[in-house]
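Session log. Operator J.P. requested a structure for one protein chain; no other inputs attached. Running the standard single-chain path with token output.
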Amino acid sequence: MAISLTANERTGANPAPWRSPELYWANLDRVTEGEDPPFGVLQLDALRFNAHDMIRRASGTPIRIASKSVRVRSILDAALALPGFDGILAYTLPEALWLAESIDDVVVGYPTAHRGAIAQLAESETLASRVTLMVDSPEHLDVIDAVIPPEKRPAIQVCLELDASWDAPAPLGRLGTWRSPIHSPQAARSLAEYIVERPGFELVGMMAYEGQIAGVPDRAAGKAAMNTLVSWVKRRSRAELMERRGEAVALVRDVADLRFVNGGGTGSLESTSNDDSVTEIAAGSGLFAGHLFDGFEAFDPAPAASFALPVVRKPRHDMATILGGGWIASGPPGEERLPKAVWPEGLRMMPREMAGEVQTPVEGGAAASLALGDRVWFRHNKSGELSERLDEFLVVDSEGIVDRVPTYRGEGKAFL
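Structure written below.
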């Protein structure tokens, strides 16, 4: 069956069941009792809530779905069926070509050096009209021309990336992800002029991803001082970027007829939608809502994605050992990158082992009641990375399993 994310018309006493953890997780355990862990789950009501809440937060600005934060083809299709989502921001060109078989607007979020995929793109008028490549230097154009010269291919659509990082006062220094070398409005215009004069390319878009705003928690539990600092950084960085991005877009529009200007992320939907220079927002993590987003002040998503692992040992009466568990999220090493045990409540990982490749011992009040074969429910820190661990997700509602949907991995696609 096709997954639908249209608003659920079913009414009940608890339309947002995740607000009651003791009911929500216990129900997931009940409706999947016939499944052998490890397995992953997408709760349909929570997924619907997140999709519609993202649309609400974007306030009319279209959302281009960041596919790397989902990595499930059927969920991408379901979200694109909703008014408010429009187009895909892919991670790699091979992934973009696969998606473009049925999706007519795919932007590759990172520059590519994949020669085989470039050749495939350049050999098809249809794919060339559907896929846009990311560039931030003349060398990116050189890579494409080295595969197939401009006179032997259709024009390649490209998007110019502006660096959105903030040069904060000392001692903070540069804040944001290391992406494009193009930081100033003047540098953006210079590169735009170069692109439009170069045969075989069409400049159709701009992008500026404000990771220091969209991807950093400002309501992290037990970190009051850090939350205050991050909130200050976000306010100052938003003001700086809005002015600089607006100027850069205006200068580039003097040179090229841009079809889109992309910015933001799940964590910045409200603020990015207030930037008049931005025509669309890239976001996808908010659909699954990894536990990273528990620490954001502006919104409170539902825990739509989770996974269950089995208890296989009882080394002590008040401990339980879980099979596997070392599903660590990317980013700076730290405890916040670990999966979060959410049910039963009150479980703690052991400081000298934490989440391990083959086992994860836990203690706490609930550990004493766990028996061999029981499940422990976890949430991943980052949304799409969970899909790299699973071949499929079970899609469930309050009554049972309604579908099984393959991840990219389950479809035999290794794009990352």
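Operator note: DSSP finds twelve helices and 19 strands in the chain.
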